[in-house]
């Protein structure tokens, strides 16, 4: 187990190291390139400034008419006025040299007086032709930034030239000073880039939650495989409240398009799921709870996603339990019918035994009275021909009796014919009776009771159920039909689904389930239902 862990950490460190190295290298290379370019540009600027300064000094000297007059007046002289004036100018301007020549290029001044009278070492043809020139050249005193201008007499005739040189050492000193400043700036920039690299690498590590590239690729493949083959709907919401994922299954379950990338409240999710994704959903049981949406019974589970203590959001897993619930209700209806038939068979057997005993003993009159009593005795099947309805009434009667509630069949009950869709009809009637029985058992009135009337109206079945419970609280008349509403605790996932399921089933057949009265002076809630086309009429024989 240790070897894989070390390999995984090694890969992770290598990946982070590679990202850091690439990021830092790119930033450092950019800084170094910028510094190099800046130094080259600065060197050129400084050299140009030196040349401009040399040219300005030469022009200033050439504008002094004395120099032209002294050159015209006589030959070069180491102690002449040109040498004295040029040396004074050189010292004042801190130039390397100030050289004055005649029209043949002979020096009239030079820092080295021994060179006076000799021809200059560089080509004087440009200034002697009447043009200014500057540049970086090497002469008898070494490299210098120099400027050369023609020397003219009062008539404008070129009689010589003046050359001024700025020492390269001065230019280099400026370059070194600027270079040190730029190197300092570069060092700070590289150090800052290193800090940014470390911060960015750490941030990338946090964003990926410590996953390596291969692990993220595996997650993508698993993600596509799981969602593509999932039979359950999945909705994923990040920590900021944006919907990041909604597969096709969940949109089929909800019957609506879920907009990915939008806030939860704008995503098209039903209100119940929007509330579930908020703080109110933190108390949602881990096993999930059943909700009725889009005419389907959905098991909704809420999963909070965390990694290394960071909240990554919430995932809803939505499974369709409609078919399973249909099977359960069909089984319940069948069991109720079976129990009713078994109870009736047992009761009829007992009655036959009593009747046989009376006749065997010769008590004919008593047997006749007994038969008369049986004829007038109350029966669950009174006025109801369909065996499924009889079965559900028998079963709910037994359930009510166990809870201390009396289930009473109204005198007006009359249903001819049989049910066309027994399962859906039993769903509506059974849920209405279950709701009423629970309300009566939990109410304050005693004795507790439930009255039910069933009436065939053509091929429609009309159902009314009244209980002795405490009724529906004012203002919650609409809420009782929302999936998940109940007056009981939420310790059982199926609580609160009955009325929603009954209404959904009735509407599926064009019918309706309504709350006729929230409460009354001597009773609790009154619910009514009309199931259209629920009965198959029995043909009347002529």
From TrEMBL:
Output the Gene3D superfamilies linked to this UniProt entry. Answer: 1.10.287.130, Histidine kinase-like ATPase, C-terminal domain (3.30.565.10), PAS domain (3.30.450.20)
What's its top-level EC category?
transferase
Where, by residue number, does the polypeptide cross the bilayer?
21-42
Keywords assigned: ATP-binding, Cell membrane, Kinase, Membrane, Nucleotide-binding, Phosphoprotein, Transferase, Transmembrane, Transmembrane helix, Two-component regulatory system
What the entry lists under SUPFAM superfamilies is as follows: ATPase domain of HSP90 chaperone/DNA topoisomerase II/histidine kinase, Sensory domain-like, Sporulation response regulatory protein Spo0B
Signal peptide segment: none
Instruction: Return the EC number.
Output: 2.7.13.3
Recorded catalytic reaction(s): these are: ATP + protein L-histidine = ADP + protein N-phospho-L-histidine
The UniProt entry, under InterPro entries, shows: HATPase_C_sf (IPR036890), HATPase_dom (IPR003594), His_kinase_dom (IPR005467), sCache_3 (IPR033463), Sensor-like_sf (IPR029151), Sig_transdc_His_kin_SpoOB (IPR016120), SPOB_a (IPR039506), TCS_sensor_his_kinase (IPR050428)
- Give compartment(s): Cell membrane
Q: Which GO terms describe its cellular component?
A: plasma membrane
Where, if anywhere, are coiled coils annotated? none
Task: Name the membrane topology term.
Answer: Multi-pass membrane protein
Quote one Gene Ontology molecular function term.
phosphorelay sensor kinase activity
Q: Where is the Histidine kinase domain?
A: 428-535
What is the official name of this protein in its record?
A: histidine kinase
User: Native species of this protein?
Assistant: Microlunatus phosphovorus (strain ATCC 700054 / DSM 10555 / JCM 9379 / NBRC 101784 / NCIMB 13414 / VKM Ac-1990 / NM-1)
């Amino acid at each position: 187990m240790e070897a894989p862990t070390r390999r995984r950490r090694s890969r992770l460190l290598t990946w982070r190291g590679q990202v850091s190295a690439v990021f830092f290298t790119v930033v450092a290379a950019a800084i170094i390139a910028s510094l190099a370019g800046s130094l080259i540009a600065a060197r050129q600027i400084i050299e140009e400034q030196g040349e401009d300064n040399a040219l300005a000094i030469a022009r200033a000297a050439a504008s002094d008419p004395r120099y032209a007059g002294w050159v015209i007046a006589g030959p070069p002289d180491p102690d002449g006025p040109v040498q004295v004036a040029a040396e004074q100018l050189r010292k004042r301007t801190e130039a390397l040299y100030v050289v004055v020549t005649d029209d043949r290029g002979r020096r009239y001044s030079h820092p080295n007086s021994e060179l006076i009278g000799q021809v200059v070492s560089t080509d004087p043809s440009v200034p002697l032709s009447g043009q200014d020139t500057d540049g970086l050249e090497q002469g008898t005193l070494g490299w210098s930034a120099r400027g050369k201008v023609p020397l003219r007499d009062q008539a404008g005739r070129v009689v010589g030239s003046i050359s001024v040189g700025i020492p390269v050492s001065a230019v280099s000193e400026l370059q070194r000073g600027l270079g040190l400043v730029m190197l300092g700036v570069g060092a700070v920039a590289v150090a800052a880039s290193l800090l940014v690299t470390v911060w960015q690498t750490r941030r990338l590590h946090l964003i990926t939650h410590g996953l390596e590239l291969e692990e993220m690729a595996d997650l993508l493949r698993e993600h596509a495989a799981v969602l593509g083959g999932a039979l359950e709907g999945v909705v994923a919401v990040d920590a900021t409240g944006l919907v990041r994922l909604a597969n096709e299954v969940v949109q089929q379950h909800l019957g609506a398009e879920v907009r990915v990338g939008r806030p939860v409240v704008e995503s098209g999710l039903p209100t119940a799921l929007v509330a579930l994704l908020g703080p109110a959903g933190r108390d949602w049981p881990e096993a999930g709870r059943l909700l009725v949406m889009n005419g389907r019974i959905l098991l909704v589970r809420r999963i909070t996603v965390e990694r290394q203590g960071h909240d990554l959001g919430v995932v809803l897993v939505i499974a369709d339990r409609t078919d399973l619930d249909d099977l359960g209700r069909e089984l319940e209806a069948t069991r109720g019918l079976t129990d009713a038939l078994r109870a009736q068979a047992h009761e009829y057997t007992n009655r036959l035994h009593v009747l046989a005993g009376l006749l065997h003993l010769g008590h004919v009159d008593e047997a006749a009275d007994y038969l008369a009593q049986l004829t007038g005795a109350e029966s669950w099947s009174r006025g109801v021909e369909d065996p499924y309805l009889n079965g559900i009434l028998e079963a709910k009667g037994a359930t009510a009796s166990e809870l201390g509630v009396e289930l009473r069949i109204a005198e007006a009950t009359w249903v001819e014919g049989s049910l066309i869709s027994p399962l859906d009809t039993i769903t509506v009637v059974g849920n209405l009776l279950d709701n009423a029985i629970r309300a009566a058992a939990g109410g304050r009135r005693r004795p507790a009771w439930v009255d039910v009337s069933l009436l065939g109206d053509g091929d429609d079945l009309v159902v009314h159920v009244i209980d002795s419970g405490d009724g529906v609280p004012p203002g919650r008349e609409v809420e009782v039909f929302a999936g998940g509403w109940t007056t009981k605790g939420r310790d059982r996932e199926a609580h609160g689904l009955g009325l929603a399921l009954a209404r959904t089933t009735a509407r599926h057949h064009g019918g309706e389930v309504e709350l006729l009265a929230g409460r009354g002076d001597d009773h609790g809630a009154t619910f009514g239902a009309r199931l259209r086309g629920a009965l198959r009429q029995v043909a009347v024989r002529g």
